[in-house]
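Kindly review this record before class:
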Amino acid sequence: MLWNNANGPAAGATPPPPSLKVGELKKQDLTVYNEFATTLEGKQNVEIWPKVAGFVQKVYVEEGQKIKKGQPLFKLETQTLNQDANAAKASVNVAQVEVDKLKPLVEKGIISEVQLETAKAQLVQAQANYQSVASNIGYSRITSPVDGYIGEIPFKIGALVSSAMSQPLTTVSDVSEVRAYFSLNERELLKLKESMPKNEKNLVNLEKAPKVTLVMINGEEYPETGKIAMINTIINSTTGSVTARADFDNKNNLLSSGSTGKIKIPTIYKEAYEIPQVATIDLQGKKLIYIVKDDNTVTTMPIDIIANTQKGFIVENGIEEGTTIVLEGVTKIKDGMAISPAK
């Protein structure tokens, strides 16, 4: 190197090649997560409606209480129904007496059998009326059809209720299993299907689909993984989207029906490369990387990106394993330039 009188490099001397970090590409299995907004629903949300009209006489449960199938919930006032039942029972008795009175007369040939058959028909009608009233009395005691948790109870003791109400007595929610519904557009649906395992008929096999993760409203991941249970294949012509569902066990009752969150669905890429974003440049709509040759000069190479990650891009083909690429300062170098590789 030439030196001037000021003990510095002589004018026109070639500067040393820049020292830049480089790295060798190695194939690996990579997982990328796609996120979708979701709304949670319990396994069952059963609205409780009265079958008969009456005043609420008793409320056996509290809002939020855990209950079992068949457990009493409400008791409606049945005084009017009891009166109707007594009248219907009296009609049955009268009809029965009439039948018993006519039987011997028919046997002796005093009256025709038609009169007896008419009396029997009236007895059957009276018995049906009584059974109907008795059933309504049974309906005044309202029980839970499923296991679950009691929702809001808007009607208190003394309120008049009927089957024509616009609001149910309460809702019983079974949240032992929670269903997370989410929507995908047409492109997302196609991408999801392509990434799913297939059966022997080349159809999506949900049984072998990868587990999914639920991100709760507080940003934390739910500790139990879920499974995709349903993907609707009919696209809504209005929204251009389809509905899918993932199921999660909720034995600890941490999740609530009506909550929101995000579903994270993994896509696994086998034997692929992850190229850091800082190692790429854009040129005429293409992504390029700098390859380091044996003489430490660099040359550009376009890459075929198949997916994005938080750090960069996934590439499967077009690059040999062990290829060394420049990992920093790519905007400051040019094709054919020499560098000092720092691994």
Notes: The mean pLDDT is 86.
